[in-house]
Write a structure and sequence with these properties.
It is a single chain. The protein contains 3 helices and 17 strands. The chain is mostly beta strands and about 300 residues long. The strands form 3 sheets. Strands 1, 3, 5, 7, 12, 13, 14, 15 and 17 form a 9-stranded antiparallel β-sheet that branches. Strands 6-16-8-9-10-11 form a 6-stranded antiparallel β-sheet, with no helix packed on it. The radius of gyration is 18 Å and the shape is globular. The chain starts with 5 loop residues before the first helix and ends in a 7-residue tail after the last helix. It binds 2-acetamido-2-deoxy-beta-D-glucopyranose (3 copies).
Length: about 300
């Protein structure tokens, strides 16, 4: 058995690599030049959860989720009346990622590694995640919108990680969007009903905002060369604006790796090994809604702030 150092035990999530390179999608619903979209994670209107088990999914199909599950068993197509900022009505669809008691991830199918302390369901873009590959080099902007589902509410006594970039060696995260009762972030916690974006190693807060109902739209301009992050944000259908008056902030972006979209729910009382230990209540049915996920190449066209 591999010995896992403490920092790794907290942060390394042991997701299998989603390797296969796919051609960049075209046909964006935005007015951004199609050539500036590196990868498009939006799904067509009318899609069913079965899409997420198929090769047509823009996401990997084999992880991250509980043993014996598949994405079609945990993804829902929510009844969203207003599309997120970069989803076009009738063209793109929101989707919801859910976790249940069955959401115990077992890396490599080896039961000795079962992550009993976590409940996990996360989508990774089905693109090359090696150090130096296009998604994690140059200047790329990660767009996504996120919304709470009141009928599948989070339990904010726990820490949730919804969107993060995890290094290719699983040793760290370059950024993480969290909510709930933050366990490992001295100084970044506060009201649990807050969306908190932390930087490398979850040490610093890059941005936070109350986790109200409705859409929260993000664009993270990631400069992998200069190691800088600039946060753009808006609510509902409003155009994105710069979130911090200080502008871009220094943040270690080294290590390549995969973007994750979904739910990673930590245990309570897990001490130094929340991945494997601690308390998880039973009978859960929790979800989070996503829309407008895509990666833009900002070396060419900057950051698109609104679809029109
Ligand atoms: C959407 O609404 C229909 C009809 O009310 C309902 O059956 C379905 O469960 C809803 N979908 C979700 C994901 O909540
Ligand atoms: C992934 O990207 C790396 C770094 O650019 C490259 O060396 C490798 O050949 C790529 N792999 C595939 C399958 O395209
Ligand atoms: C929230 O989680 C805590 C810790 O797991 C648990 O004790 C509590 O019962 C949960 N509350 C609800 C409303 O589910």
């Amino acid at each position: 058995m591999t010995v896992i150092p403490l920092a790794l035990a907290l942060l390394a999530l042991w997701a299998p690599i989603t390797a296969a390179a796919q051609p960049a999608s075209t046909g964006s619903s935005t007015k951004a030049p199609a050539s500036s979209i590196l990868w498009d994670g939006r799904i067509p209107a009318g899609s069913t959860p079965a899409l997420f088990d198929s090769t047509k999914s823009p996401y990997g199909t084999s992880s991250v989720f509980g043993e014996k599950l598949s994405f079609s068993k945990l993804i829902l197509i929510p009844n969203v009346t207003t599309p997120s900022l970069f989803d076009a009505k009738g063209k793109d669809s929101a989707f919801e990622v859910t976790v249940s008691d069955a959401s115990v991830f077992v890396p490599g199918g080896n039961s000795a590694n079962a992550q009993y302390g976590l409940r996990r369901a996360e989508l990774n873009p089905a693109i090359n995640n090696s150090v130096g590959s296009p998604a994690v080099s140059g200047t790329k902007t990660l767009h996504f919108s996120i919304m709470l589902d009141p009928s599948r509410a989070f339990n904010l006594s726990h820490e949730y990680q919804m969107v993060f970039l995890e290094t290719a060696d699983y040793s760290n995260t370059q950024f993480t969007l969290k909510a709930g009762t933050i366990l490992d972030g001295a100084g970044v916690g506060g009201d649990p009903k807050t969306l908190i974006l932390t930087g490398y190693g979850s040490k610093e807060k890059l941005f936070s905002t109350p986790f109200t109902s409705g859409w929260h739209n993000f664009a993270l301009e990631l400069d992998f060369t200069k190691n800088m992050v600039e946060v753009y944000y808006s609510i509902d259908s409003k155009p994105l604006t710069k979130a911090n008056t200080a502008g871009a902030v220094a943040n270690n972006m080294a290590g390549g790796g995969s973007y994750h979209f979904g739910i990673l729910k930590k245990s309570t009382g897990g001490g130094s090994d929340v991945v494997h230990k601690g308390f998880q209540e039973t009978g859960i049915n929790e979800g989070i809604i996503y829309g407008g996920i895509f990666i833009e190449d900002s070396a060419q066209g900057g950051v698109t702030l609104s679809p029109s």
